[in-house]
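Subject: Protein entry, chain in single-letter code together with its fold tokens

Category: Structural biology, sequence-to-fold work with a learned token vocabulary.

Notation: Tokens come from a learned vocabulary of local backbone shapes, not from coordinates.

Start of record: The labelled sequence and token lines come straight after this line.
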Amino acid sequence: MTATTPLPGRLAAFVQGMDAALDAAPDEPRAVETCAALLRELVAHDDWLPEDCSRPHPVHYQQYLLHRDPADRYSVVSFVWGPGQRTPVHDHCTWGVIGMLRGAEYSRAYAREDGRLIPSSTEERIEPGQTTCVSPSIGDIHLVRNAYDDRVSISIHVYGTDIGKQSRHVYDAETGAAKSFVSGYANA
């Protein structure tokens, strides 16, 4: 979406709520708590996401920018997962709240220990209407995958910065070696 494109009603209400919350209490714990509540309300309804921000790519997942706060306090992104698609192991270097809009996804957390990555023994599955959080303070390294091999899933991500410009890392799951990257957006 562009700066001149009006936001759909539900997304506009979400953005207004985020702006008010960050104006009142910009610290991470309260921002994450408020964002999770607002995002649960947003993803409880699957009637607002523009079609051009919900198209899968045949080879890799897509990140579509839905809204970027003018002060770079947060960004809202739709992640569109084609059948069986996944991320590499990666981090965000900021807080994030993920809400499931359509389909389902799995997330496996990783911890750093002596320079290596230790995967969690379980995967977290999120379904439509549910949210989960990441941040450097609570755990920021994970691998995410579409729960389905035969259909598209879509999640809405809110990050505590413009995630498309944020320098972050992908990790070699075997060695723990980190490589910097900037994700960008499919539509910006």
In short: DSSP finds two helices and twelve strands in the chain.
